[in-house]
Design goal:
- This protein is α/β, with parallel strands linked by helices and 301 residues long.
- The chain has one domain.
- Helices cover 49% and strands 13% of the residues.
- The protein is built from ten helices and eight strands.
- The strands form two sheets. It has a six-stranded mixed beta sheet, with helices on both faces.
- Helix 1 packs across helix 4 and helix 2 crosses helix 3.
- It is globular.
- GO terms for molecular function: acyltransferase activity.
- Keywords: Acyltransferase, Membrane, Transferase, Transmembrane, Transmembrane helix.
């Protein structure tokens, strides 16, 4: 009874902490971005990017604190732990909840570079968010459809070359690129509608992963195949985290090499496309089996 009565108070405390820390650190990142915008000198921009990255890690620590601010949080992390902040990684993760992003932030603060996302170009115009992400050198992708390329053949490959140029900045700051391969959060309805061949997962979409590897494959030190599981196979809402109702999180990390056969032109090379889809589906099959194994040897329902 007392635990139930405390839920609203836990939510207020945690939400206020998350809101204030995000507002303050977000404002500082934007302030760092202003001189970077006004002084387009590479050395100066790298300096401000380093400062912004430090603030981003501070925000990551703040978000990590939300897991234990009003209640004890039990982390069950298995697999590879020999990771380093001064290297470059790409994460392949299943996606069950918005809480997944905070989970990956927590992992990054421990022993990985701070994560980056490939964002749609339109997001650069979103107030505060666009400038903040630009300051953090997150690449804004402008993809061209087949119809646009057919009308203007000069656009062929332009999206890749433009994004490659933007990702050159990652050479100066160790980075983790996050890719939720399923493209959306798991729900039983989506699982049934898509007729997923996997028990616990939606079928992965290979295009985004292949695109990231085509652009940055030679720079990544490894691929991190991360599996996230919640008790009772739930899809916890942020409300459950902030109100102290989420007590256990299970994570498995597997490090994979970036081999030459994983880098190619997914959209124009049919042989490579078939090979890459097969490879990613095999990873998802292993992830599905891993979830079963983790559930059977733990108290996850």
């Amino acid at each position: 009874m007392l635990t139930t009565l405390l839920i609203p108070f836990r939510f207020i405390i945690t939400f206020t902490f998350a809101l204030v820390s995000t507002g303050i650190i977000g404002a500082l990142i934007i302030l760092v971005g202003l001189p970077k915008l006004l002084l387009p000198i590479p050395a100066v921009q790298r300096m401000f990017s380093t400062w912004a990255n430090g603030l981003f890690r501070l925000w990551g620590y703040a978000m990590s604190a939300t897991f234990r601010l009003t209640q004890p949080m039990r982390w069950h992390i298995e697999g590879d732990s020999q990771l380093h902040r001064d290297r470059w990684y790409m994460i392949l993760a299943n996606h069950r909840s918005w809480v997944d992003i905070l989970v990956l932030m927590h992992l990054s603060c421990r022993n990985m570079p701070m994560p980056r996302f490939f964002l749609k170009h339109q997001l650069i115009w979103v107030p505060i968010v666009g400038l903040g992400c630009w300051t953090l050198d997150m690449p804004f992708m402008k993809r061209y459809s087949r119809e646009q390329i057919a009308k203007n053949p000069k656009l062929q490959g332009k999206d890749i070359s433009t994004t490659q140029k933007k990702c050159q900045k990652f050479r100066h700051i160790p980075t983790t690129v996050i890719n939720f391969c399923e493209g959306t959060r798991f729900t039983p309805e989506k699982h049934a509608k898509r007729q997923s061949p996997f028990k616990h997962l939606l079928a992965p979409k290979a295009g985004g992963t292949a695109f990231a590897l085509q652009i940055m494959g030679q720079q990544f030190d490894a691929i991190l195949d991360i599996t996230i599981i919640y008790p009772d196979d739930k899809r916890p809402a942020v409300w459950q985290l902030l109100s102290g109702q989420l007590r256990d999180i299970y994570v498995n990390v597997e490090t994979l090499p970036v081999t030459d056969d994983l880098i190619g032109d997914y959209f124009n090379d049919e042989a490579f496309k078939t090979h890459f889809q097969s490879w990613l589906n095999s990873r998802w099959q292993r992830k599905d089996q891993l979830i079963d194994a983790m559930k059977s040897k733990s108290d996850i329902s």
